[in-house]
Design brief:
The protein has 562 residues and is mainly α. The protein contains 24 helices and 4 strands.
């Protein structure tokens, strides 16, 4: 009885907090309405289509998919590819993170940059590089080894490309966890007689296991939902994301395409919740009391050399792909005529300048909206208490778990008719950028706000300031690093988007990644290389400007340190 009374009293207090602050009430209502409209409604539209036939509820699309070997093979291919890539990428990411966090290898700044570089690249740039290096007219296969092979297409090529593309995901998760493990724990183990290798397997590795598992799950989902690389280099190795796209656009079978997209949603949402739980509870590995943090290194000089060689090898392999893209921009006809030319730049300027401008304009518009919205949601979730706060928190993070293919299909279904006819406009692309990337800002904002005492903002409120004024004048300046880090990440993801926006571009509002894909499909690899190179330059320039203006470091922007 006492508990129920207390609960009712807390609910009344939460409701009063909303009604007594008009700005907070209006903000919560508008944010919830936006999240429902741009996240829940498109998802509902896609799910509704996949579960209907002739206007009635039906599971026929799912029955058809699971009773035909062609579709079952696509599902199994996706799972096999995801498991292979997740295992290899997590292994590389762990060794790379261990070399920097525990090995303290020389040149760690350079290696950190190499670990981040694939994240700011076009989604299929590495697939294009692999074709240029190992394809039928590849520099290594045809020119150096004189092999006539197209074996780069399919599972092998996809594994290479996706591992290089996604090992940074594992690295960013694991480097913070490894840095958070108290070195005194390892020192104590060695003081008790354990060898360094035994200390690694009995202390360091067990403490890092939650992060390793979380990294594996993240990479697995990343591989499962990857669209750009499989459509370029997949060949006859059919995967679920590409099959959903082809069914929806090429075959015109909208219900089946929606059903395939919904199948992608099941593992991604499940992994999202598992990973969130693991990361949320990872802190137990670092609770060791007050520590001097001066424990001796757990890495021998020989192991440090090995870690350095490993990190250098991975970094040079990554750099090779970038050098290939730059070289491909100047080669007249790759594999046939190796003479230098600038004609690819002229062609790319003609076909791509307007698209590049549009991409940059849309990303520039969406970036501050995404950053501010993410920080506002984080502020409300951390600092305010009201009925429905958990729903707001859940909806704001939901888009992080939805595959891009499902988002694109959902948007084209939801916003292709009245009362929300947005197809073909800039607004629909901006909406995708904002609500696909807002979880990044929310996560960063929540982490930053939890490190700041709420007494500061409470004092402002007690002195008569409104919630809006307190957020603008007190909160934002205090979470400035997290704000700009979220904005930078949102810009990068907007500039390199492909799986969702490929359904939504139009003749008036195209996207540079879609244009690069089109040029690659018609084998204008030189033009595709130029456009990819231009995209990388724009993104790097933006990051450099943000770092200079704000004083942020690379590790702060990409969250590679605790």
């Amino acid at each position: 009885m006492a508990n129920s009374k207390l609960k009712r009293r807390l609910n009344r207090g939460s409701f009063h907090q909303l009604t007594s602050d008009p700005a907070l009430l209006i903000g919560v209502v508008l944010i919830l309405a936006s999240l429902v409209l741009f996240i829940v409604y498109p998802l509902y539209s896609a799910m509704k289509l996949s579960l209907s036939q002739d206007g009635a509820f039906s599971l026929s699309q799912y029955k058809y998919i699971f009773t035909h070997s062609y579709y079952r093979k696509s599902i199994m291919n996706s799972i096999m590819l995801g498991a292979s890539v997740a295992t290899l990428a997590t292994f590389i990411g762990f060794i790379f993170a261990y070399a920097i966090a525990k090995g303290k290898i020389k040149g760690s700044g350079f290696f950190q940059s190499m670990a981040i570089l694939p994240i700011i690249s076009p989604p299929f740039m590495f697939a294009l590089s692999v074709i240029l290096l190992f394809g039928r007219n590849g520099l290594i296969t045809a020119k150096l080894l004189h092999l006539d092979t197209g074996g780069v297409y399919g599972l092998k090529g996809l594994i290479i490309v996706q591992v290089i593309t996604m090992y940074p995901i594992a690295y960013m998760t694991l480097v913070g966890i490894l840095q958070g493990i108290d070195p005194d724990l390892e020192t104590c183990a060695m003081n008790l007689g354990a060898k360094r290798l035994k200390t690694f397997f009995t202390v360091t590795l067990p403490l890092a296991l939650p992060g390793i598992f979380a990294s594996w799950l993240l990479v697995f989902v990343g591989s499962l939902t990857d669209f750009g690389n499989p459509i370029i280099i997949g060949g006859e190795f059919d995967v679920l994301s590409v099959r959903a796209y082809l069914e929806f656009t090429g075959m015109g079978n909208l219900p089946r395409g929606a059903a395939l997209a919904m199948l992608l949603l099941i593992p991604t949402v499940g992994v999202f919740f598992i990973q969130k739980y693991i990361i949320k509870n990872k802190a137990y590995v670092t609770i060791t009391g007050k520590s001097s943090r001066r424990g001796s290194t757990s890495v021998t000089n020989g192991a440090k050399t090995g870690l350095f060689v490993f990190a250098l090898g991975v970094s040079l392999f990554v750099l090779m792909f970038y050098v290939t893209i730059i070289s491909g921009s100047f080669i007249k006809l790759w594999g046939v005529d190796w003479s230098l030319t600038l004609r690819h730049f002229v062609y790319a300027w003609d076909v791509g300048l307007t698209t590049l401008k549009n991409t940059l304009v849309l990303a520039t518009i969406s970036t501050p909206i995404t950053a501010v919205l993410g920080m506002v949601i984080a502020f409300i979730v951390v600092r305010k208490s009201f009925a429905g706060k958990q729903i707001l928190d859940f909806l704001s993070m939901l888009s992080y778990a939805i595959p891009g293919t499902a988002v694109g299909i959902g948007y084209i279904l939801a916003f292709n008719k009245a009362p929300f006819k947005l197809s073909g406009t800039a607004f629909i692309l901006i909406a995708v950028y904002v609500f696909r990337n807002v979880p990044i800002g929310v996560q960063g904002g929540i982490a930053a706000l939890k490190q700041i005492s709420g007494d500061i903002e409470e004092s402002s409120t007690n002195l008569g300031a409104s919630t809006a004024y307190t957020f603008r004048k007190i909160t934002l300046p205090l979470v400035r690093p997290a704000f700009f880090a979220g904005a930078t990440f949102a810009f990068v993801r907007s500039m390199t988007a492909i799986s969702a926006i490929i359904f939504l571009v139009s003749a008036r509002w195209n996207h540079l990644t879609v244009l690069i894909l089109a040029q690659t499909e018609i084998m204008r690899l030189g033009a595709a290389s130029v456009l990819s190179f231009a995209l990388i330059v724009v993104i790097m320039a933006f990051i450099f400007i943000i770092m200079k203006l704000t004083g942020l470091k690379q590790s702060q922007i990409f969250g590679t340190t605790n």
